[in-house]
Design brief:
Elements (H helix, E strand, L loop, with lengths): L1 H32 L7 E5 L6 H17 L3 E5 L6 H8 L7 E6 L1 H8 L6 H4 E10 L2 E5 L7 H10 L3 E5 L5 H13 L3 E5 L3 H9 L5 E4 L1 H10 L2 E6 L26 E8 L4 H14 L3 H9 L3 E2 L4 H22 L5
Parallel strand pairs: 1-2, 1-3, 6-7
Antiparallel strand pairs: 3-10, 4-10, 4-11, 5-8, 5-9
Helix pairs in contact: 4-12, 7-12
């Protein structure tokens, strides 16, 4: 009997200790679990400052810093066509404190870099932030004013280089695609982001580039460079004077660039939903809208599933283009 009483006492004591632990320790733990965000959030940008991805990340981050009550820190992790930054984000803890802000490099780079994984499947989509055309730009000193004039010049000067924000970028793909369709022999000159590429373009170290309008726009307005064509299916609202490649006679040569937020797989769905809501709301912020318009970025928004489907469809498209165009890393 004493042995039974002793065993009952130990069992009851253990249960009481568990209940106390649950009350004293479990409640704060539960609060911590539901208190996201309770510390700064990191936006990983896989390319250098000065380009559209960095611009969009900083605009959205500024709004979220206010609405979430936590600082959003933009961290540029460059190299290997953006794959270093994308790898970092992919392998980060799935806790909502690391967010990748990228473009369709996430769909193209795995095929060009011959990776064993696909970011569009290894990352969880959060929000479709915006879309933008890529632009064919030349230094004004060339005296070239149209795509036809450029093609004639490039045929007379084979091996002309075109700058982009990196190997595996959408700019790399559209540059090679255009060269093939125009029957040109051109050399790819990759940089670690649009900021570095535009610096060499305006200094005339390279005289031709495929870049996003965010980096190009101020220098275009200043007359240092000329914009000959854009890659999207329709002309950007703020650059209606620049023809599309289809307008210039290259039917079917269309590449729309998108910008989006992703998080590591396994991030709690409630955090993904909150991030999606906050990011969609940020795209209605008056200051952000003004800045997006200035940078020729069209805000989009929508549920995570929308950008997830687009990203995976583009991965299939880029796999085909990389093979057809024989695009390699060197």
């Amino acid at each position: 009997m004493r042995r039974i009483e002793r065993r009952t006492f130990i069992t009851n004591a253990a249960a009481a200790a568990t209940a106390i632990a649950g009350g004293v320790l479990g409640a704060p733990f539960a609060r911590a679990q539901g208190a996201w965000p309770d510390r700064p959030i990191k936006f990983v940008v896989p390319l250098a400052p000065g380009g559209a991805i960095d611009f969009i990340a900083r605009q959205v981050g500024e709004v979220l810093s206010r609405t979430l009550g936590q600082q959003v820190v933009v961290e540029n992790k460059t190299g290997a066509g953006g794959t270093i930054g994308m790898d970092l984000a992919m392998k980060s803890p799935a806790d909502g404190y690391t967010v990748l802000i990228t473009n369709d490099n996430a769909a193209s780079a795995p095929h060009i870099m011959n990776l064993s994984y696909d970011y569009t499947k290894e990352l969880a989509p959060v929000a479709y932030l915006g879309r933008q055309s890529q632009f064919l730009a030349v230094h004004s000193s060339l005296g070239i004013n149209s795509v036809k004039e450029l093609v004639d010049y490039a045929k007379a000067n084979p091996g002309m280089g075109f700058a982009t924000s990196g190997v595996g970028s959408n700019q790399h793909v559209v540059g090679e695609w255009f060269a093939k369709e125009a029957g040109l022999k051109m050399s790819h000159v990759p940089y670690r982001g649009a900021g570095q590429a535009i610096n060499d373009l305006i200094a005339a170290h390279v005289k031709l580039a495929w870049l996003g309008p965010t980096a190009l726009f101020p220098h275009y307005k200043a007359g240092t460079i000329k914009l000959l064509a854009q890659s999207a299916s329709k002309r950007a609202p703020t650059l209606q004077e620049v023809p599309t490649l289809e307008d210039a006679g290259y039917r079917g040569l269309v590449l729309d660039a998108w910008y989006a937020a992703f998080v590591p797989k396994g991030t709690p769905p409630e955090i993904v939903a909150r991030l999606n809501k906050e990011m969609n709301d940020s795209l209605k912020d008056p200051k952000l809208l003004t800045n997006f318009t200035t940078g020729a970025v069209e805000p989009v928004g929508g549920p995570p599933e929308e950008i997830g489907k687009l990203a995976q469809a583009d991965s299939v498209k880029y796999a085909r283009l990389v093979k057809e165009l024989n695009i390699k890393t060197n």
